[in-house]
Structure to design on (305 residues):
């Protein structure tokens, strides 16, 4: 069941009165990823793998399933992220490719159309259904009003590039391949600091995706050496959970040629020293940026033995 407090927090979010717009149990949603996920996932073997990923918009989870992951653990401190993922996963089973894009992409006349939602609604998990029922009620059952509300980050071009950055909706073929996939899902409503403690004690993983969570290290730890603390306290416990040849995608840095703020993290020795291990292969995976004419880099930490 959904608590009355949850509905109160959702209402505050819709009214732009929430104190937890970025972090917290109820916070703004990303409609689609803001990074070129397929740009670096295409360089990793995910078939039949056991993976962990931040949930966010749900796109990391859906791309992992599309690429063949058989067991997927999603985590996020924002509980709405898990409901957004459930909405997308369920919509894929119910809607055809064009209808899915029409429902989720903001330049469509049918974006979050309530009639389309009624086709998905009965297949949703009960809590997800209750939450989106409430959101539609507060949005006057107007899909465009819902999509342009304070529920979502209104990033420019995020809808334009959705099919480019996401393999699962790149074309009809990938969409139908995704629909046929069957993966085991686990959801952890937790922060990155508490994640490892919530995982099954003896379980090992092949891949961990952290997106750009490390960008918020200063807000998480509030000390000068926040990056080193984040690596030590948040990434090391997950790196230790990897199988041999497993990978942590520890950081995604946008526009590496002009983004000098993150340049200090592009140092394999730093990562080895802070993680206190020689079992690490440091990899920088360059790929097309979300910013035209630039390149992004995914920092990957591979466990070699």
């Amino acid at each position: 069941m959904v608590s009355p407090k949850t509905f109160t927090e959702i209402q505050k979010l819709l009214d732009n009165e929430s104190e937890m717009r970025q972090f917290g149990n109820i916070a703004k949603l990303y409609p689609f990823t803001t990074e070129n996920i397929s740009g670096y996932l295409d360089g990793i073997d995910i078939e039949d793998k056991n993976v962990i990923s931040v949930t966010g918009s749900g796109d990391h989870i859906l791309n992992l399933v599309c690429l063949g992951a058989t067991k997927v653990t999603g985590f996020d401190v924002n509980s709405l992220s898990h409901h957004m993922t459930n909405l997308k996963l369920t919509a894929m089973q119910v809607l055809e490719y064009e209808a899915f894009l029409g429902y989720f992409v903001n330049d469509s006349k049918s974006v979050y159309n309530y009639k389309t939602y009624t086709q998905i609604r009965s297949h949703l998990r009960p809590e997800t259904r209750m939450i989106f029922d409430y959101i539609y009620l507060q949005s006057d059952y107007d899909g465009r009003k819902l999509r342009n509300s304070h529920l979502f980050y209104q990033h420019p071009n995020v809808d334009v590039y959705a099919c480019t950055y996401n393999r699962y909706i790149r074309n009809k073929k990938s969409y139908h391949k995704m629909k046929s996939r069957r993966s085991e899902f686990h959801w952890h409503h937790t922060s990155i600091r508490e994640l490892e403690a919530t995982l099954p004690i003896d379980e090992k993983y092949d891949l961990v995706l952290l997106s750009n969570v490390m960008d918020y290290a200063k807000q998480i730890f509030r000390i000068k050496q926040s990056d080193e603390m984040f690596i030590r306290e948040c990434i090391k416990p997950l790196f230790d959970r990897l199988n041999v040849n497993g990978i942590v995608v520890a950081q995604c840095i946008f526009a590496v040629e002009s983004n000098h703020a993150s340049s200090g993290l592009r140092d394999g020795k730093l990562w080895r020293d802070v993680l206190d291990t020689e079992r690490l292969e440091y990899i920088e995976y360059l790929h097309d940026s979300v910013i035209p004419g630039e390149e992004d880099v995914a920092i990957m930490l591979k466990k070699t033995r």
